[in-house]
UniProtKB/TrEMBL annotation:
It comes from Natronobacterium haloterrestre. It comes from the Archaea. This is Asparagine synthase (Glutamine-hydrolysing).
Length: 573
């Protein structure tokens, strides 16, 4: 990786047991921890900072913004922590990890941002607590690693290992809104739902959720407009990235993966033309799917590399700073909210009303894209002989329960569980290893809007009206599969197009995986020794490849993983 944070809760001698100084740009040592960082953009405005003095040492890793016009976020946090304690972490803004060893308070810890948009992995196996941003690098310190039964099964069936699990038993990751100390893992209270209607009954009906979101979006984008160098955006024809295109004034380039004649590419190109930005469409060749080193390392062995759509084309992206709209649908448009539906030709279509009594497990399985048929076939064809339906339902139920205390009701608990287990985060991990990368949805003010806004108001309509407050021409070009204002009408038109001769159907936004898998002979090239899985869907086969190659990357317990993928093997039972 181009950027890495690695440390130990111990002195410099303990750190040197595992890593060499010359692997890092800076190594800081405090009384209770030692941490090294490698980042070619260290010290760039809005990006990774490090600071050490008599008060201790601190690293703020990733994208960060602080008040008081302080130029170094790490120095700001070290100074502010003595006065404000963990409240200082609530003020720190962005997509980051914070590492702090503070002399006066006698504290040392690693803290995530409120939504864990950057992972931190740790193990106690070497006899000292080791932590870092690269799961493989931390796993290398484990003497005799063992595949984690539940982590492996969750990854293969759901595309994500839930909670704090990883692919090996001895390696864990920090929870959402958590911090790691020398002896404990603690939960913070920065991400707790406090809907406005619960506290401001007299004013709730008068609150302008649209205007409030518009104001916060404007400030969040202004903060991120100051990032340096040539700027680009990963652009879809949908809703979420166009507000960035509209509001960041000096964006020079935009990029989309897709064929030149694809509806998604044509739509993105029109948006780029509207805002005077150069547009590049990368053809969906084998680079789009191929899970090579440029993708698998960022999956961390727990999330699908499939989501890193752009990875194979990174060398052709000519910018220093990159923007994206990841998770805007989750934070502002209610992606995980359960809504009442009506059946149209066998497909449930949301009516726009909240489901008054959702089943959490059923809702989350649908949102995570669980396929009963594919998982059943995977279990039958491999040594993963655990009933997948029983297993995933139990796993989701446990994970929902573990996040329940952060939410006031079931609807917010669903969203909280979804945010805590986003399988798409490798998309951001890869981008931020290649470029200075802005993550709009993690802005502190926008997270606060999400936590204070009732689920009924966190909708696509609210988001679009807020965007129109900033740019009344932002919907000049609608997404190709959403020509109408209401989801119901869009679904009806989609159905009519599918069933009517001579009418073209709406195209999916991403290239077809099955076609590309077959076209580039990936069964033979990637899974030549596992012919019994060749009939599985491409997505599940890619998960198998991800897992095997992640273990290969650091010489992990491959000998114990391969039997799990063989047919009729009871190893994981």
């Amino acid at each position: 990786m181009n950027r890495e944070l690695f440390g130990v809760f111990g002195d410099r001698e303990a750190f040197d047991r595992f890593r060499d100084d010359d692997e890092f740009d800076v190594v800081l040592t405090g009384s209770r921890l030692t941490v090294g960082i490698r980042d070619p953009d260290l010290g760039t405005t809005g990006w990774t900072d490090a600071h050490g003095d008599d008060a201790g040492c601190c690293v703020v890793w990733g994208e960060s913004y602080v008040p008081d016009r302080e130029s170094n976020a790490a120095r700001w946090l070290l100074e502010r922590y003595e006065r404000d304690g963990t409240t200082a972490l609530s003020t720190l803004n962005g997509s980051y990890l914070a590492v702090l060893d503070h002399e006066a308070t006698d504290e040392a810890f690693v803290a995530t941002d409120p939504v864990r948009s950057r992972g931190c992995f740790y193990t106690d196996d070497p006899g000292v607590r080791v932590f870092g941003t690269d799961a493989a690098a931390v796993a290398e310190t484990v003497a005799d690693p063992t595949p984690d039964r539940d982590g492996v099964l969750e990854f293969l069936h759901l595309g994500v290992a839930l909670g704090e699990k990883t692919a090996i038993e001895e390696l864990r990751r920090l929870p959402m809104d958590g911090r790691l100390t020398p002896t404990a893992v603690e939960s913070l209270d920065r991400f707790v739902y406090r809907p406005r209607e619960d506290h401001d009954h007299d004013h709730d009906h008068d609150h302008d959720y649209v205007g409030d979101l518009a104001d916060r979006l404007e400030r969040a984008l202004e903060r991120r407009s100051k990032l340096p160098g040539r700027k680009g955006v990963l652009l879809s024809a949908g809703y979420d990235s166009r507000i960035i295109l509209s509001q960041v004034p000096d964006l020079e380039r935009s990029y989309t993966v897709g064929a030149p004649d694809a509806q998604e590419v044509i739509g993105a190109s029109r948006l780029a033309d509207q805002y005077g930005t150069a547009h590049t469409a990368f053809p969906p060749d084998e680079r789009y799917l191929r899970p090579d080193e440029s993708k698998v390392r960022y999956s961390q062995g727990i999330k699908e590399s499939l989501h890193i759509h752009h990875a194979g084309y990174a060398d052709e992206i000519d910018v220093e700073t990159m923007y994206h709209g990841l998770l805007c649908d989750t934070f502002f448009r209610g992606h995980f909210t359960a809504r009442e539906t009506v059946d149209i030709a066998g497909k449930p279509v949301p009516l726009g009303r909240l489901d008054p009594d959702p089943d959490p497990v059923d809702t989350l399985l649908e949102k995570f894209g669980y396929s009963r048929e594919a998982s059943r076939e995977l279990a039958e064809r491999t040594g993963l002989d655990v009933d997948p339906e029983t297993f995933v339902r139990h796993a989701i139920d446990d994970e929902f329960a573990s996040n329940r205390s952060r939410a006031d009701g079931v609807q917010n608990a669903l969203t909280c569980c979804g945010i805590a287990n986003q399988p798409s985060i490798p998309f951001h991990d890869h981008l931020s290893d290649q470029f200075v990368t802005s993550f709009l949805a993690t802005d502190r003010e926008l997270i606060d809007w999400h936590l204070r806004t009732p689920p009924a108001h966190r909708t696509t309509e609210t988001f679009l009206r807020a965007c129109e407050r900033l740019d009344d021409d932002i919907l000049r070009h609608r997404p190709p599969d959403r020509p109408h204002d209401t989801e119901l009408f869009n679904e009806i038109e989609g159905f009519v197009r599918r069933k009517t001769p001579f009418l073209s159907s709406f195209e999916p936004p991403w290239p077809d995986r099955e076609t590309l898998f077959e076209r580039h002979d990936f069964d033979r090239r990637l899974l030549g020794d596992l012919e019994h899985v060749h009939e599985l869907p491409a997505r599940h086969k890619l998960r198998i490849v991800d897992l095997r190659r992640w273990f290969d990357r650091w010489g992990g317990p491959k000998s114990r993983l391969i039997p799990l993928l063989r047919p009729a093997n009871p190893t994981l039972a």
